[in-house]
Amino acid sequence: MIHKMYELGLLPDDDVFHLYHGDFQSRNLLVKVVDDSTVKITDDDAYEEEEEDAMKTPEDIERSEFKRMFEEIVGTNFSRYSYLPSYILAHWMYYILTRGVCSGGDLYVAEEIISKFKKLHCSS
Fold first, then answer.
1. Do residues 3 and 90 make contact, with C-beta atoms less than 8 angstroms apart?
2. Model pLDDT, residue 16
3. How far is CA 101 from the centre of its chain?
4. What are the beta bridge partners of residue 39?
5. Extents of the domains making up the chain
């Protein structure tokens, strides 16, 4: 995956990129809006679902505006690294590899990530 992303120019030598954030900077926290006055900080187990939700444009006008303001504040690089499917797959793989493949379930997830990546970038 890394070699193909490099070949595609997604991981250039002179660019700053992050596949994983191990700190609690506000830009690294994922939250789910529960209601108008409550948010829930999500955990690692919900990360895949939250990333997929983040790529969607909210149907609600107010939430759509919040997303637009957030993206304006964090800048284009954040959006590029957060929403591009190749980066999301690389993040998931990094997560698996840093914790180790300890079960058949972990191996299955790693194989699914590779399969999705190949569908994006490899011709049949």
1. no
2. 56
3. 20
4. 33
5. 2-121
